[in-house]
Amino acid sequence: MEPFAHWIALGAIGWLGVLSMAAGAWLNNPPLMASGGIGASYALIEIANRFAAAPAGRRRVRAAPAPPVAAAHRSIDPSDSGALVEQMLSQDRYALLLRPQVVETLTHDQFLRAKQALEQAMALVGEARVTLEAAGLSQGGVIHVEPFYLDRFTVTNRQFYEFVAAEAYRQPALWETSIWPAVAEMIDSTGAAGPRWWREGCFEPGQDSLPVVGICWHEAAAYARWAGKRLPSDAEWVRAAAYPDNSPGNRPRPYPWGDAMEAGRANLWGSGLGRVAAVDQFSEGATPNGICQLIGNVWQWTSGNFRGTGLEAEDDRSAPWSLPSPWKNIRGGAFDTYFDSQATCQFVSGEDPRRRRRNIGFRCAIGVCDLVPEVCT
Amino acid sequence: MNNASVLPLRSSQLASYTQSVPCYLCQTVNTFDVEFCTCCSAPMALAHQAKGRKVSPQMVAVVGASAVGKTVYLGMLIDMLTRQQRPLHLLTRGAFSLALQQTTVAALARCEFPPKTPTDPERWNWVHGQIRQARKRQPTELILCDMAGDALMTEVDHPHSYRVIRQFLQRSAAAIVLIDAMEISEGSRRQDFFAMKLLSYLSELETDVPGWSQRPVALVLTKADQCEECLANAAGFARTHAVGLWQHCRERFCRHQFFAASVAGACAWRESATEGRRQVPLRIEPRGIIEPLEWLLAQRLGARG
Questions:
Q1: Residue A86 at interface with chain B, using a CB cutoff of 8 Å
Q2: Are strands A328-331 and A348-351 parallel, antiparallel or unpaired?
Q3: pLDDT category, B35, cuts 50, 70, 90?
Q4: A53, A147, B34, B291: which could form a disulfide with A368 (CB 3.0–4.6 Å)?
């Protein structure tokens, strides 16, 4: 930035020049006029040049916020298993560490930390027989669900950023082979790999705790695979949402908290917010075992194929759908879901697995049988 | 000797027949108990409700081709305005004003679209309501009508076929023209041509001052959930995919704006044994429904309703 004294000097020269020109004109003194004109012109030219100079030297430039530092960005020695475990814990990939094939390589302390991370981030959902009301089920709609863990919160921008920073979009093993050509089209608004509305591979500042949206079903499945988990099945999702108690004969509830929609328990159209909220808001709508926002905020991808919403008349339930390819189920409703009846535990909607919507996110699950038995003790 | 006679009560009603009620649309004189105007088939309830009010309700025409989504759009608009308090809130007047909202909401909640609007004007749903705006002290009285697209097309192609449509459009203070964004994005010119024909019809209507060239017209691209390009920039989408319509609006209407709207979050086709192939909304996520009316209300609705 130019020193203030320079501006004072230029201003003084300019005014003296103008006064000299005026005096010369009044006294009929051409040399005085000419020198005054030269001085004024010099001052004007210098001022103009400084305004046209590089903006960094004169204007205040607001620095772009630095992207968050991902665990994948920290350089570690590949032979240092301890550092690798730390990195995976930072990336919320504790589920991989608790697999029987991996856990034997952990120290006791590392195992405890991974177990603690699992218990903090996921809730245990016990086995049960679950009734699904969606159409087209050959089992008559009752499915036995084995015990499993479900994420307490939908996957956040911050968590998904770790996935992006680890260049997971370039790891073919995480993606179905049929979808490989399409992975290159899963880009953000600047052309970098990432969710649809991100910029340069990162989310907007201040949105760390918002659920990640603008991701298709395949991206959700790839993230789950990368984290050592999977997408929940529809029966698992309904078990977690509609059957809060494990007592036998317990009837399913329309909502995790009871039989009626209550203001403040879920982020739907009626709540008036009109946008996604942080994953830990609307905590009054959580299940008794601490799973938040199963209803409202963002729809959640599940692993099931769409067969119907469950609202069809009995004789219409077998009517085939005319879809170009199998659609995937989404459950739970979102911030813009207009009808409370379309945000119940049993209601299911469908979406093209390649669509990247502003109101669809996901959460992950893992079966108890996929983890070492010591996790549950 | 006087024979006292008791006149039957009906005579008082007979006396009422001497009282005439002009239709609110075409001003044709009707008897007080007629349900629909004998001339234009507009509901006489509008005249009864408007009678005695200090401010005459203004009419806003919601028009578009068949199957563009007029019933769904209008039904959702009414329901959303009655549910919310700010920035606009609607208070319906008369039981007849609730029929459209009830039919539409009931169908959408079941993940169905409401049935096609019949072409008989006596079966159309009318809405008379009072809109309260957050920053305005005086509420605005509005009349809206869910007209059949086929009837609109017939009137445009053969003027005076539907007197009620002609009268309504002549007296409307503003218009919301619905255009199917999906059809336009697929390259079909049907929506483009119909909208241009409709707008030409409007601009050539004999009306009170100001004419349609001065009245605000909101052009709403519907079904935008299936065509997200138009949600980002409705005017740009229209300029790219409906050039004729875009140019037509620029030349004929000095107050117009493009909007994008959607009601369903996603739709799919289903083969039903009883109803054949039909489109089904998989969930309801309204977007851009209220903004066109907000814009219209922000304009000076100068024409008398």
A1: no
A2: antiparallel
A3: confident
A4: A147
Q: Does A310 touch chain B (CB under 8 A)?
A: no
Q: Does A271 touch chain B (CB under 8 A)?
A: no
How far B195 CA lies from chain A's nearest CA (Å)? 30
- Using one digit for the tens of pLDDT, what is the confidence trace for B230-269? 998 999 999 999 999 999 999 889 899 999 999 999 998 8
Residues of A in contact with B272 (CB under 8 A): 316, 319
Q: What is the pLDDT of residues B145-165, one digit of tens each?
A: 999 999 999 999 999 899 899
Interface test with B, best of A133, A268, A349 (most B CBs within 10 A): A349
pTM, entire model:
0.84
Report residue A356 as tokens.
Answer: 């990247």
B285 touches chain A (CB under 8 A): yes
Inter-residue contact A357 to A328 (CB < 8 Å): no
DSSP label at A60?
-
Q: Which of the 8 DSSP states describes residue B21?
A: E
ipTM of the complex: 0.88
Q: Scanning every residue of chain A, which has its alpha carbon at the shortest distance from the alpha carbon of B111?
A: A311
Per-residue pLDDT, A303? 95
Q: Which residues of B touch A346 (CB under 8 A)?
A: none
Q: Does residue A314 belong to the interface with chain B, where contact is any CB pair within 8 Å?
A: no
Interface-testing mutation among A338, A344, A346, with chain B (most B C-beta atoms within 10 A): A338
Concatenating the DSSP letter of every residue in A190-244 gives TSSBS-TT-BTTBPPTT-TTSBP-S--HHHHHHHHHHTT-BPPPHHHHHHHHH--
Q: Calculate what percentage of chain A has a pLDDT beyond 70.
A: 87
Contacts of B278 in chain A (CB under 8 A): none
Which tokens in the block code for residue A315? 């004789």
Number of H helices, E strands in chain A: 10, 10
Interface residue B286 vs chain A (CB under 8 A):
yes
Across chain B, how many H-helices and E-strands are there?
12, 11
| Residues B89-100, mean pLDDT to the nearest whole number | 91
CB A339 within 8 A of CB A311: no
Q: Considering only residues A330 and A65, tell me which one the structure prediction assigns the higher pLDDT.
A: A330
Q: Of B110, B277, B285, which is closest to A336 when you measure between CB atoms? A: B285
Task: Indicate the pLDDT class of residue B218, thresholds 50, 70 and 90.
Answer: very high
Q: How many CB atoms lie within 10 A of CB A104?
A: 9
Contact present, B42 and B24 (Cβ < 8 Å)? yes
